[in-house]
Every structure is written in structure tokens, then in C-alpha cells.
Amino acid sequence: MTYHNNILLDVFSGDEISRPPVWIMRQAGRILPGYKRIRSAVSGFKELVKSPDLIAEATVEPLEVLGVDAAILFSDILVIPEAMGVDYDIIEKTGPVFDNPIRSVGQIDHLRKGEEVLPKLDYVFQSIEVTREVIAHRNPLIGFAGAPWTLFAYMIEGSGSKTFSRARKFLYEEPDAAHRLMDAITESLIAYLKEKINRGCDVIQLFDSWAEMLTEAQYKQFCIPYISRIFEELPEVPKIFFPKGAWSSISHFKGMAFDALSIDWKTPVTYVREQLGANQIIQGNIDPALLYARPMEIESAVHEHIRLTGRNLIVNLGHGVYPNTNREHVKVLVDAVKEYRY
Length: 342
Description:
Blueprint: H1 7-13, H2 33-40, H3 45-49, H4 52-65, E1 71-72, H5 79-84, E2 88-91, E3 95-98, H6 105-108, H7 122-135, E4 141-146, H8 148-157, H9 165-173, H10 175-199, E5 203-208, H11 216-222, H12 224-233, E6 239-243, E7 260-263, H13 269-276, E8 281-284, H14 295-309, E9 313-314, H15 327-339
Parallel strand pairs: 1-4, 4-5, 5-6, 6-7, 7-8, 8-9
Antiparallel strand pairs: 2-3
């Protein structure tokens, strides 16, 4: 499909573009007034995630307030564990907490997987359809999911963690069971993402938020085969992979079936270019803390980032927007990209 603002899709198709596209991770939930109003109108985060009309409103607001080049469907990566049978809640100032985390190998064989999860996720698919109607032909829509290891880590740990030591322990003590769980998560993600594409998502991003917790050898053993399978089995839409902090594994990504590699602010773009070549589309790498700087410094740093990275770039942060970020400074970043010319 062609949109009034098609620049994000143009970078994937290799079309000549005058500037890079820009969108911002966590571009809705942390800094925008419309989201804060929506959030205060519901009992909790999970009620919001399961309300298609509110999801559409939260998804579209960044297009109108920030002027970014794409919308990303407001959702949560933990909808997959919940659909598989591992329930969670979001506790204010604590984060995700699971009611029944996996504590035994036997629990794995009783999980729903693959297409069995789809009826439990119908609210997500309804949200896509409502959002598509609101966006109309303005901008492409990104759909996302958590990568197998990141979801595995939450399902085993039972909450967020600074170390995910319980999940990592499981890899050492129960490697066969770990692979079974990774496989079940992978089957569920493939079914989920295929349906997201069927319902109208133009681009898919896979977040491996806790990739940095694993050694290079572990990432190669427990992650890359499943991530590769996901990208290989999805339809031909642009695919973005964000393995946060997994710089040591970048050489192993060569030849994988994603289109853009999203990198955190501590991974140099020059290193990625050395490993994967000039034709690799890179997304991200801007330090979220840059948005605390003065507007002129933000603009200068963004232009330097584009010059350093060159073409085949999607401008984004190396992580999500921090909660106390000045919204006007985010707009400065977006405007700096939009005024740049190669």
C-alpha cells in the first residue's frame, strides 16, 4: 500500500529518498497528553491494552503531535505469555508481575501455542483494524512483538529483573526444556505476527529487550535459531530486529531474514557497518538522554548521526523515550531529521 507519507517503506524498497525516516520507540505512552488522559480513564494498563478504540487513539497521537513518519500499534509484548497461559499484571512503579510463572518443566507442555493463542489475542487484531481506519492513507503502521528469549525470561523469572538469574539458571539446568519453551513461544509469535500482518500491519519489529543478558554462545544456541525461523516464516513485509545490547552477536546476524537492525546507543554504527556492510539498514543508536540537551545541541547531534551513518538509516532512539523527557525536545529531534537533506 502507498501512503501520503511513504518514506519508511521507501527506505526498505531502496527508493531514492531525500532524508531518512524517523519514528520514536515508546513514542506514545510516556510524554503525550492524550495518552495520559486515556490512561487515567481506565482502571489499569491491561484494560487499556484490551480497548481497541483507545489503542487506536494512543497509536495515532504521535503522528499528529510529533509528526513522526510511522505509527506503532500501542500494545505490550507480554500479551503472548498471557495468551499462552502465563498470566501477568502491570503493577504501578513495579512493572510486570506474573501470577503463575513457570517453575517446573511439566508446565511447559500444558501451554497453549501456535494458532491456539489467536482467539485470546483478538482484541489486538481488532485494534489494528480500528487503527487502520483512523490512520486511513496517511502513514504506515508498525506491529511489534517480544522475541522468544525476552518472553522466556519473563515467563521463568515471574517479573522484571536486573539479572534474570532464574531464567538464565534454567538455560543451564534444563536446556532441553528451555528449547521446548523457546519453540512454543516461537510458534505462537509466528501465528500472532502473521495475523497482525493479515489485519493491516505494514512493518514488523521484534524486540529482544533482554538480549544483553546472554553470552554470545548462549545467544547463538538459544536465540538465533528461533529468531531466524520467525523472520523466515513471516510474509514479505519489512522486518526490524532490535536485540538490545547484543553487540557481541552482531556477526551472527549476517544472512538473517530481517531488513533493518535496530541498535542501542552503546553500539557504534561504525561497528555494525563493519560487520554487516553498507547496505544494511540501521535503526536507532541515538542516546535517549540526548533529549535532555538544549535544542541546538539535539539538532546538531542528529545531523551528525545521519552523516556518520549514511544512507540505509531509520532515525530512532537506542531505547524508548525516558518518562521525564520534554515533549518539545522530542519534536526538535523529529524536525531536525525532517529538515535534513542527503
